[in-house]
Amino acid sequence: MKLFIPGPTQVHPDILAEMARPAIGHRTPECAQLWGTARAGLSKLMLTQNEILMLTAPASAMMEATIRNLVHEHSLHVVNGAFSKRWFEIAKSNGKQAVAIDIPWGHGIDADGLRAALEAAKAEGKSYDAVTVVHNETSTGTVTPLEPLAEVLADYPETLLCVDAVSSMAGAPVRVDDWKLDVCLFGLQKCLALPAGMAIAAVSPRAMQRATQVKDRGWVLDFLRLAKGNEKEQSPTTPSTAHLYALVAQLKRIEEEGLENRWARHAEMAAATREWAASHGWLPYPQDGHRSETVSCIARGNGPDFVPALESLKAEGLLVSNGYGDLKGKTFRIGHMGEHSMADLTDLLQRFDAALNAEVQA
Ligand SMILES: Cc1ncc(COP(=O)(O)O)c(C=O)c1O
User: Bridge-partner residues for 272, per DSSP?
Assistant: First the structure.
């Protein structure tokens, strides 16, 4: 099956081969070398000097870790899709006084919207320890520009900017230091094009400082314990060395491609997908200015029903995602991320057209 879903995505055969290497002890110099090389490569990928934390876990574990380490009591959550809603729910389920700013799916919050929420809290004599934002909402293919939010937060120094870049990192620009992201987290299974299995975060010095003051951070997800492990290039728990080998090799491949070239390749695929969708009378689901370059979410509009074509493609071994949750049948999503090339995408879209034509003729 060839995966054009918005993650997990295709893994290069050379990377799969890396994962088949024999296991090594996780307290050996070889493993420390791998750990250090991965961290150095991730700093370059994320454009940051911040502490790089790595866990053998799903990305959601880092979402939970962010809450447990940085929030004493009050957190604010921009909710514009399924994964941003998950972060809000994670905070509530960890006993925090979590507040959601609900905005319509397909939209992103702007500076004024964030400032209004922060001011409303201030008027009640309250401040938030952190605000969470999903940079690229995979459920709707919606991007939220982060720089304007960081500018607002400069006036609220007690509120840390925590960002989920799960489906944008390595596929679209994410400049952790320039954009002043206190936490930027992601998993491996999207634009990095590795199998799922590790969660990564870059954590700013002031966020690490916050963690020292927060009680009951737990053990496995404790940022301070993870950072202490880094001093010896070790994980406190047993890491997946298969993923470490694969990560180091993939970071090298990404460096060889060039980060900007990689971003440009994703942007080109997104533009071609939007043009193709328009030719069928379909519309981009997200608002203008908020359209993802790694996952296109396409609404039916006046175009033909796409669901039978998704089924035909699946029978041919090509997996494209139906809409998320309530958007099923109303939207579909093409993940053009990671290893996919324009040639792969063109082939998919031609086969999609053939499936649509076959439907019309049937
Ligand atoms: C934006 C976003 N955040 C978080 C997650 C959760 O990742 P995981 O399943 O690795 O916990 C996903 C998964 O699709 C996602 O797309």
Answer: none
Cα 85 to averaged position of ligand 1 atoms, centre (Å): 11
Choose the residue to mutate in 54, 60, 132 for probing ligand 1, maximizing ligand atoms within 8 Å of C-beta. 60
pLDDT of residue 360: 81
SS3 content of the chain, % helix, strand, coil (to 5): 45, 15, 40
Under a CB-based contact definition with an 8 Å cutoff, are residues 3 and 319 in contact?
A: yes
pLDDT of amino acid 20: 98
Span from the CA of 141 to the centroid of ligand 1 (angstroms)? 13
Domain 14-255 has CATH 3.40.640.10: yes
**Is any atom of ligand 1 closer than 6 Å to the C-beta of 83?**
yes
CA of 259: how far to CAs of 8, 295, 361, in Å? 20, 18, 44
Residue 7 Cβ contacting ligand 1 at under 6 Å: yes
Q: Domain 258-361, CATH 3.90.1150.10 — does that match?
A: yes
Q: Strands (DSSP E) along the chain, which ranges?
A: 2-3, 51-55, 74-79, 97-102, 130-134, 136-137, 142-143, 160-164, 183-187, 199-203, 283-284, 295-299, 318-319, 321-322, 331-335
Counting every residue, how long is the chain?
362
Comparing CA positions, the residue from 175, 239, 198 lying closest to residue 43 is 175
Q: pLDDT, tens digit, for every residue of 171-196?
A: 999 999 999 999 999 999 999 999 99
Please identify every stretch of the chain with a pLDDT value under 50, giving residue numbers as ranges. Answer: none
Residue of 175, 172, 164, 167 lying closest to 193 (CA atoms):
167
Question: Quick check: pTM over 0.90?
Answer: yes
Residue ranges per structural domain of the chain? 14-255, 258-361
Task: State which of 62, 66, 83 you would mutate to test the pocket of ligand 1, scoring each by most atoms of that ligand within 8 A of its C-beta.
Answer: 83
